[in-house]
Recover the amino acids of this structure.
């Protein structure tokens, strides 16, 4: 191939690529709520190859406020190319008997993150995500990370509410962190065909397992949580609305991604 | 496959798919400027399989203000799912001796259009596109389509100017329409791998020719034009900046897409 | 005053002013739905000086897709400075026995239009507005203006749905146009104080009547309509939700504004 | 007055007001660069009542990533109503012999912050602002606050670059903080008239001095800086482009605002 570039657009230098080549370094603040959806609904979104988790309906929602960069880190000082926020749901499942999670619905607010997600198997759409921040000074405008601090997040897409959640901190230093988001994540990489007669025969359709390295994590604050998932035209995530809500978590997390494991092609 | 959906996210019903299944019906207003870039620059962005056009450096820029829908047309009354605007550059080339165009750079302002473009081989990024409109009434705020009417368009991405263009109408009914955008378009469908060691070995990388049907077109207004392409971090389209500017065109166009022809896989 | 500029920011030349000096020329496409709200709710939003309309609860919603410019029209070829969309509600009322309308709630998608609205007495917030378009060619993606054509509009703010409406055209040439939006509009210009102890004593608070000239209007298409107003945090427009829905209208309209009449100061 | 609300829209409850009533509590991260503009340019933007600073051309640019709320703090858990980012320039000046600053140009990314700024005398337009963050964990994606950490910010409006700046930290604990942004700020509250013949006779036009309380500030990191101000249609801030660049600063700051002092009406 004459032209270069990890993603499109491809040029002589590769510099215009929407997604820079791996490795991708990430750091971000997280709000997570462990919860349970209606078991049949949770089962209904599992891709071929995954079986329902024995703790039926086990799910989590994750809101992340990210800063990311590629090797060299030039995006860090040009933050329109490094910042993005995302909201997603994970459903717990079994892969060959092993506990895993899978992401059926996710929204993100930047194009490079949307494309990077498709490459990793995250079914990303664009949305608008907001999440409470903390600044480390005493202020009525800063909820802080001590007991009593109230944090919230919202996700919308096309001007419709997708979800909102809150966490009221009870412990500033939880021993464990979120349980429903802990297992490794397994998704489906999917790239459709447009050739007539082959619209139902995607060119890429494979179960993949995320691989990461150099993981860092802050202390975890945890507390009571609320969660709502809302219906909207052209959306189906609300089938996973909570029937029981667990604990909420707030922490900071970072890692590096430059690999992906193909579990199996699905046909 | 148990789950349904032309694109991700995939569910039992397929209704949450970011891109609805073909056919896709389009109608939109266009501003086009025929121009010539520096010949070596135009040549430098051609994918394998295309040779330079004998009229060296021949290019066009296209700004389109679209309304689109899938079968049934539900998106039409929910226009956040049918409206989008895009700006792109085409470079003229030869494919096995036949005149074609190819699109090295394109920006679009909606996620469904970005994903639909990747599926068709358009190397779309998100941008913000603005284009003068006309309303069919006499008003100082309406430039109209008669001689003297001045139309403009701009494209930006990440808060940086990518391009601007203007067309001052001299003829309200041109016989031909744009010449540099007339040949069939040939692009590259590209879907990268993330598996370690295979970042330079895309899973999908093939030359494709656009196929369409049921084309409709209004009268074409034409006139003198201006065009600027601007440099920006992480962008390279400005290597195709104009060395000579031809005529500008303003018209309305519609068509339907539900097919794509693979010319050859590139390795 | 040394510095110049109709609005802020003010400079030696006045060129940076967010709102250029009047006259302001406008042209746009409109979707309007005549309807009735709960009478007590309609009465509850009337400013001092207006009395309830005898046809209790009479209201309209208006969605407008505008192109506007100041004298000289430079914004027309730089459409990021001339395009905006807005959605608003008008309540019918009496001013000294004369039929008038007043606008209690309005959203607009550009800063210059928000500021221009405040100067005119429109209580504008930012929102995202979408409205079906028509292009004048035969296409499954173009509803057209003949009987059977279906048009829709939505308004959201901060990622929450504010309103949606549809109009299905039954007549392509209605004799009259919207009735509930026909009377002259009377609003309140309001500019608060921040000085301690005077937060409830606005510096500007006066009833004003809109003045316009050079009005142009297309034929009016009309038909059956739907309308929903939705609740959201920090919003109250949904108290004006419809109890009865009248006819919907689609037309193009233009005018020029460079005057405003103060009816009385309110204290 | 029957209707309530600090700003428009005004209702029976006041809950729909775009700007909630003071006090307003703020906390945010800051990047500041002390610099000097061309002295005549700096002088040219001073409102009546201010004289040039003896250190001719003394200016600063400020980028702030804010979280704010009103009394009760409900906006904190609904962060689309509490987050905003802004970029502004201050010019140093003298008011009756006292050192002050004044803000000739400012962009902000939320409507409530734009309106709140107009009330305080800040000449706000909408823009898009990005600023590097730090997360307190070791990561290649986190520049941190120790020597060597590189931070950047950009501001754009209408898809055009307004400004960019960088700070490379040399000291994680500077004794003083920014000097050019230290004096009290004096701005002009301005609200135009639209009545014919009075477009040059604003209804409100007064020099005001900001008042705040309960100020908190983190340690200040400082280092070398870069700064660019770019020209764009309808903008004039680039007349204040740097002729000499001082030091850059990064810190966190919070305060409360519920008062404003009128210095004098300008006629």
């Amino acid at each position: 191939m004459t032209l270069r570039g990890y993603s499109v657009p491809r040029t002589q230098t590769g510099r215009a690529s929407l997604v820079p080549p791996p490795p991708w370094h990430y750091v971000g603040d997280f709000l997570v709520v462990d919860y349970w959806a209606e078991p049949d609904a949770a089962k209904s979104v599992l891709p071929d190859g995954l079986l329902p988790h024995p703790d039926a309906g086990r799910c989590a929602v994750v809101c992340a406020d990210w800063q990311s960069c590629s090797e060299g880190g030039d995006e860090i000082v040009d933050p329109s190319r490094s910042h993005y926020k995302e909201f997603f749901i994970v459903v717990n499942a079994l892969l060959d008997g092993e506990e895993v999670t899978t992401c059926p619905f996710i929204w993100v607010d930047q194009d490079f993150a949307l494309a990077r997600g498709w490459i990793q198997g995250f079914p990303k759409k664009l949305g608008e995500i907001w999440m409470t921040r903390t600044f480390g000074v005493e202020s009525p405008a800063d909820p802080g990370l001590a007991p009593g601090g109230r944090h919230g997040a919202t996700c919308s897409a096309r001007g419709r509410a997708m979800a909102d959640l809150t966490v009221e901190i009870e412990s500033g230093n939880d021993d464990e962190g979120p349980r429903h988001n802990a297992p490794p994540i397994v998704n489906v990489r999917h790239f459709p065909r447009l050739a007539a007669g082959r619209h139902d025969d995607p060119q890429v359709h494979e179960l993949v397992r995320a691989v990461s390295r150099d993981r860092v994590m802050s202390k975890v604050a945890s507390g009571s949580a609320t969660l709502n998932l809302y219906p909207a035209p052209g959306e189906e995530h609300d089938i996973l609305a909570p029937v029981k809500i667990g604990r909420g978590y707030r922490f900071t997390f970072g890692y590096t991604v430059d690999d992906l494991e193909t579990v199996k092609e699905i046909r």
